[in-house]
Amino acid sequence: MDMFMEPSNPSPLPGAPPALEMRHISKAFPGVQALKDVSFVAYAGEIHALMGENGAGKSTLMKILAGAYSADSGEIRVFGQPVRIAGPLDARRVGINLIYQELNLARNLTVAENIFMGVEPARSGLIDRAAMRRAAREVLEQLGASFGPETPLSRLSIAEGQLVEIARALMFRSQVLVMDEPTAALSERETERLFELIRRLRDQGIAVVYISHRMAEVYALADKVTVLRDGQYIGTLEKKEINAERVVQMMVGRPVQDFYEHRTARTKGEVMLEVRGITDGKKVQPSSFSVRAGEILGLAGLIGAGRTELARLIFGADPKASGAVRIGGQPVRIQSPTDAIAAGIGYVPENRKEQGLFLQMASGDNIAMNVLSHYAAAGIINPIGVGQLVRQAIKDLSIRVASPATRAINLSGGNQQKLLLARWLAIGPKVLILDEPTRGVDIGAKAEIYRLIGELAAKGVAVVFISSELPEVVGMSDRVLVMREGHLVGELDPARGDVISQEHIMAYATGVKEMEVRA
To answer: Does the pTM exceed 0.85?
Structure first.
């Protein structure tokens, strides 16, 4: 049995029809026009990135292509021929496969059984397992997989599971391969290996549609970029036209420089947070700094420099070996997050799903979590007061949620992050520590989070802003501290003539600045 084969159009000829055409696609759900007259074209042998903020219509368009949804109007063509896709099997028959961010695999089955799930070859009325194993082994070898067809899927990593999904697509003559945020759970090395494989698939003549909100990935892979906004087609850029400013403006409808709050627009008050000699005796060396009311202090450094560890020490999430914290000039004793909250310190952790949110609980409960005692009398919570708080927070932060009862797990990354911000705003913080607050959210949600941070600072909150994205550190911060190997090694303060730039931050983060000083 030889089901695996190269795409039928391994190298597009001049004038050849596109591998995929979606013409004038519209789709409405109750109360929502998800897509309006959207067209999308992808050619064999190219990687075509599809971008747009959450709610732009990317997933809806691709689910129509995969047969999960039916369009209200429009048509789909594969190599110039109209096709009718009424379900996932129809999509597979015409050479279209979609690999979702959440892998569609059965962990209790073997690799071969997953590849052939639903279309198992038969002989004399029985599943031909030998043929399954032979065909699966052939495609796995071509993909360079380190596991075999009889390996239980439960033993594989997420990256290896993606290989199984790709093997399934190739086994059935995939002409168009859609990958939805495929690197979300991968390490840097796994991501590099995936990129190599995607390029190989492109070179074999497959049309790869790549959905991502990460500009670095788009730069590394894409031959073209198409942008959707609010369910409508905005435009397509060729490789030579792709740049962050242009893509961002297409996605959100305004220039990238308008994202950040202007440092000159805020007045700084008294020192609100003062940290002196705080250390855990291990990862974080004795560290001292201060933040004024109304100031956004950027904390930068390479991954592993100790930024998160320092934040957790201040918040009492990890025990400190020594050091002191003052709030508004008064010493405070912080041995736990409860102590920090009582002192007016809020902390948004870098991993919102594991350390911040209660994913299975309602959005409203996540918002009100820290202040329920404020709405209780004789041990009974006042639901009217809590409801008012939650509704106002949802309105103020523009959280896109069907109702306060919607579980947090069902929200987008950006809206989940805004739930956490709403929880800490409810306590009226004097100091707010934000650890990677825009990680994993789309560009539109980033802009909203930047706006919220600026508004907090304008109201007098002292903000500690930790980020690995240097452009947002530069754009958001009034002053920047840089960490390296657990030490605070540098400060960039425009008030004394310093220039906050990516180059200057990296000079401290990599030790180049210290080398210059010693020289």
So the answer is: no
